[in-house]
Structure formats: C-alpha cells, structure tokens
Amino acid sequence: MRSNPFPVQHVYFERLDEFPDRGVSHYLKFGKEERTCSTMQSAPEKAKSIFEFTVTDLNGNETSLDRYQGSVCLIVNFSTKDAAFEKVLGLLTPLLRKYHNETRKETTDEIVKRFECSSSGMIGEIFAEIEVNGSKAPGVYKYLKAKKPGNCGGFINSNFTIFLTDRQGVPVERLNAGIHPYTLEDMVENLLR
Asked: Could you tell me which PANTHER family the record lists for this protein (predicted)?
C-alpha cells in the first residue's frame, strides 16, 4: 500500500455563487442537515452528488453539504505547512471574493484566525483535518476521487487538489494548483450560467 505523503489535510470548501439572501440564513441548520449518511459512507462512489455527504467542521460538529445545493463549489485540500500555501491562497482569493457573500460563519478556531489575518485574507469555510487518501478518507473525498480520479488512479498526491462541482453537486473538474486564475474563473463562469 502506498503511504500518503500528505496524511492530514484541511478541507477548504467554498460556495461560489451570488447569494440572493445577503444574510446568514445559508448557515442555519435545516432538517436534512441532521440526518445521517451511513449509506453514503459505506458506498460513497454510488452517490449522485456531494450533497449526500456530511463533513466535520472545526468544532467537531457534523455538517451536511446539502446546504450548498444550487451553488457552484470549489473543494480544496490544503496544509498550512506547505510552502505553496500563500501562493495558492493568492490564486483562489480573488476569484472567491468575486462571488462570496461577505457575511460568513464565525469561528474562534486558531487556524481560521491565522487565515483571516494573512495578507491576502481567507474566504470560505474550513472543515476539520482529514486524510484524503486511504480507508480513513471521508465519503465525500472517496466520491470526488471516484468521479474524477485524475492521473494517479484516484490518489491525491499533493496539497491543493481542486475539485469544481456544478450546481447539482456533481464534480466536473479536478485541477491542480498550477491552473491559471483566468482559466479557473472561466470554468466557474460557465457553470454559473
């Protein structure tokens, strides 16, 4: 079995959309959010979208991804210890600022404070540290890798692997951090139409 050179990752999940509500209602818990997704955890590759999964937030709470229904999303794994962290953050931040609702869920976690204090600023939601490869990878990552395996047979071999999903929560692209910002922006624009 191949060892994972990046065993613990952060998941950066950003909803790319213009929010009509301009409030915090998209962070409220709805009935569906409380459900368990045990079927999807045991056979994630059979899921129809990312909206069938839950992830763990920085406070240890399970959060359903169905709250992003109708939104184009970027899902990025990253490590703050990676030398390319600031560069990739600089790549994503202008694009995310263009589509992001300035009101976002507040948290006191130190890692979020660090991001928000960085020179480029952090936008988006950060979820708990995870393993993106192997048996301990959460269902949503197993699903993403099954739908968009990339060149390594589904293995994520570097930080900053970017999955772009359409409004139905289906992955349409798997990209690396070397993508040009304008190319990424064009892809997002096409999905928002």
From this structure: GLUTATHIONE PEROXIDASE
